[in-house]
Amino acid sequence: MFSKVLVANRGEIAVRIIRSLKELGIKSVAIYSTADRESLHVQLADEAVCVGTARPQDSYLNMKNILAAAVGTGAQAIHPGFGFLSENSRFVEMCEDCGITFIGPRSETIDLMGNKANARVQMQNSGVPVIPGSEGFLKDADEAKQVAQKVGFPVLLKAAAGGGGKGIRRVEDEQSLAAAFEEASHEAQSAFGDGRMYLEKIMENVKHIEVQIFRDQQGNSVYFPERDCSVQRGKQKMIEESPCSLITAQQRQELGEIALRAANSIEYLNTGTIEFLMDQQHNFYFMEMNTRIQVEHTVTEMVTSIDLVKAQVKVAAGEPLPFNQSQIHLNGAAIECRINAEDPSKDFFPSTGEVKYLYVPVGNLGMRMDTALYAGCSISPYYDSMIAKLIGQGHDRLEAIEKVKRLLNEMVISGITTNQKFYLALLEDPEFKQGTMTTDYVERVFLPEWKRRENNAAV
Predict the structure, then answer these.
(1) Are 226 and 210 in contact (CB under 8 A)?
(2) Residue whose C-alpha is closest to residue 215's, from 252, 265, 276, 254
(3) Burial class of residue 326 in the structure, from the number of CB atoms within 10 Å of its CB (0-12 exposed, 13-18 middle, 19+ buried)
(4) CA nearest 334: which of 310, 371, 306?
(5) pTM for the full model?
(6) What domains does the chain contain, in order, with CATH numbers?
(7) Per-residue pLDDT tens digits for 68-122
(8) Is 19 assigned a catalytic role?
(9) One of 16, 215, 292, 397 is an active-site residue; which one?
């Protein structure tokens, strides 16, 4: 087992990892930018090293400085968290060259699954159902047109190396396809240095369902109860829950077996998430794989009582999984809201400044808040606007909803604007209460109605 681990991240995920390391008896090393000198993760870690100035490129994405910090402090492993370098295969290779363990999958696995077109082909070869579309990369707009005619419009052009919504274009008809192809390819080239594209049929009226898997160096593998991530805005998840209220126990097992088939086919190492779209007939289609711990891993932890970060560290150290499939039980339901420093009434414009006062309303069973906030800390404009995660777990979904509502009502964050009130309205929405919301529901139905009510209230 490692004696010291460097955490190559910031904010709530860095705090969350450091806490698990402490419980394992492992020393932690934090890295920070000049803007994060007073951050909570820096204060909690056993050691902290400044790796650059405020811009992510100069600090949290500065691979050489991060590795120098690991070597200089004697860290034997690096936990990347999510975002930043968590899915950067070059960074994994550099860790290996320095004799440092990367707590995650191998570099070749990240490369394979990070390229969405290659991942589609791999899943097809493994017998995993995929969304109808192109096989491999598209040579040009003419080939894209041929595939679109075959699967039917509307279609989605997607960057093979994409992420974060970049290099994606919805195309309604043949006439607009060529221009969309060129735009998306150019955007992908600028964002990722890779302009290659592929195409998928747009699956409408669907849910976004994902399955967390875990696999150790001995080849033992397990899956966890699915998460429903259908509440989205701008293709970004807002609320995640486990399990999906519409999926039966038999479907859960079938979906888990599909996810394990995918993980075993690529000899996956450590934890990752297979993401699917589920249609109205409950057919599942592979969408992509995230080769890291995810923001929403917390709801899985709440319904299974398993610390996924501790398991990550143990597996990375060569130990077998500390649990098997029969030991993973679904206990009730859990729901997570991502708390962002933003103003929903102003088109979710980011909010920055000093947190003047903070009240964290935890207490009672099944309540959790992951955050790096404290009274007096500053929210800077340099990083993602997510500042906290509220998670409620109950005997059933309705109780979980009520617990999250209580957390939202009681939490106080003054000095900045957050999306708390927006979530309170969303949790009262009839479609959400029924659990039937699809991926387009927030933008298509809820958000326009919410804006209308807000505007009327302001008059």
Answers:
(1) yes
(2) 265
(3) exposed
(4) 306
(5) 0.92
(6) 4-103 (3.40.50.20), 132-201 (3.30.1490.20), 207-458 (3.30.470.20)
(7) 999 999 999 999 999 999 999 999 999 999 999 999 999 999 999 988 888 989 9
(8) no
(9) 292
